[in-house]
From TrEMBL:
It comes from the Eukaryota. Component of the 19S proteasome regulatory particle complex. The 26S proteasome consists of a 20S core particle (CP) and two 19S regulatory subunits (RP). The regulatory particle is made of a lid composed of 9 subunits including PSMD13, a base containing 6 ATPases and few additional components. Residues 118-288 form the PCI domain. One of its GO terms (molecular function) is structural molecule activity. One of its GO terms (cellular component) is cytosol. It holds the Pfam family PCI. Component of the 26S proteasome, a multiprotein complex involved in the ATP-dependent degradation of ubiquitinated proteins. This complex plays a key role in the maintenance of protein homeostasis by removing misfolded or damaged proteins, which could impair cellular functions, and by removing proteins whose functions are no longer required. Therefore, the proteasome participates in numerous cellular processes, including cell cycle progression, apoptosis, or DNA damage repair. Keywords: Proteasome. Belongs to the proteasome subunit S11 family. The lineage of its organism: Eukaryota, Metazoa, Ecdysozoa, Nematoda, Chromadorea. This is 26S proteasome non-ATPase regulatory subunit 13. The keyword Nucleotide-binding does not apply.
Length: 328
């Protein structure tokens, strides 16, 4: 096979050559895994002067190894895969701008993180992949799988509290009309800290063992998002929130509010101070995140109100200055 390719490899550029040989390598892999690795090693030497083509080969090699599993469906050489990802990532980071090697690398990097059960890592890499990949080239089934996987990763990922970028991505349209349409609704509920909506969809999401087992984690997570949303929905000068209001929004007992707020503070989701005497929380800062349309409109209204306050203060200063100048 390599002899056949060597007959025309000099007639096309290195990247085109790689795109031709990778499907061939997958075919060989199905017949003989070691032969496929050897085949791509030879291609690696052929294109080693083209850094982008070389990185593309490395992503292809990683993908093959991610599909090399034992009888228990575990990766045969997980350390080898991890080392290859780390070295290829350095190549990717050395490039200026987005290249043809970026999407394939982010894809295999996400696949690896899925294999090791790192939901937050998968969410990060999958967003990168979807950010540079043309999803129009995916089949409807591929788009649906990507939407489900990244949706689950967003919910189950430790310290993932920014859903805006995912909710703005067209990949979620793949859930429309499917049995997983509820997933999109759950994501919107989390983004808004809407516990009532989350509980109303429990019949659907609890059918998935991964989510059912993590119910306590999910409830804790959406409560923290509810605190963020409660603060974000208020003008900055009105962010003194009573324990009672937080308890109602987060659906907890009043004596649980302080611990919940302390958790939000420790995760740097919000900043502020707890007033135990007056049973209130003063929030001075909310972690920046991508906003949805309604959140942007709310922000615009607050900016408009702030602008009016500035103009009013300007008029007061102007009037007072006139009096001072007149007296002098």
């Amino acid at each position: 096979m390599f002899r056949f390719i060597s007959e025309f490899e000099h007639r096309i550029n290195a990247l085109q050559l790689v795109e031709i040989v990778l499907p061939i390598a997958k075919y060989i892999f199905d017949q003989n895994k070691e032969a496929a690795y050897e085949f791509l090693s030879k291609i690696e030497k052929t294109v080693n002067k083209d850094k982008i083509a070389l990185a593309r080969v490395h992503a292809g090699q990683i993908e093959l190894r991610l599909n090399h599993k034992d009888a228990s469906d575990r990766l045969v050489d997980i350390k080898k895969v991890r080392d290859m990802i780390e070295s290829t990532q350095k190549e990717i980071e050395s490039f200026v701008g987005v290249t043809e090697a970026h999407a394939p690398f982010y894809k295999v990097s996400a696949m690896y993180l899925k294999e090791v059960g790192d939901f937050a890592g998968y969410y990060r890499e999958a967003l990168r992949y979807l950010g540079v990949e043309d999803i129009g080239k995916m089949t409807p089934e591929e788009r649906h799988v990507q939407a489900v996987l990244i949706g689950f990763a967003a919910l189950l990922g430790e310290n993932v509290y920014n859903f805006g970028e995912l909710l703005a991505h067209p990949i979620l349209k793949a859930l429309e009309g499917s049995s997983e349409k509820w997933l999109s609704e759950v994501l919107y509920a989390f983004n808004c800290g809407d516990l009532n909506k989350f509980y109303s969809l429990e019949k659907q999401w609890s059918e998935w063992d991964d989510l059912k087992r993590k119910k306590d984690f999910l409830v804790g997570k959406i409560r923290l998002l509810a605190i963020m949303e409660l603060a974000l929905a208020r003008p900055s000068k009105e962010r003194r929130i009573s324990f009672k209001e937080i308890a109602t929004k987060c659906q907890v007992q009043k004596n649980e509010v302080e611990f919940l707020v302390m958790k939000a503070l420790s995760k740097d989701l919000v900043r502020g101070a707890i007033d135990q005497v007056n049973q209130a929380v003063l929030i001075t800062w909310v972690q920046p995140r991508v906003l949805n349309t309604s959140q942007v409109l709310s922000m615009a209204n607050r900016i408009a109100a702030w602008s009016k306050d500035v103009i009013a203060m300007e008029n007061i200063v102007s009037e007072n200055a006139r009096e001072i100048l007149t007296k002098s």
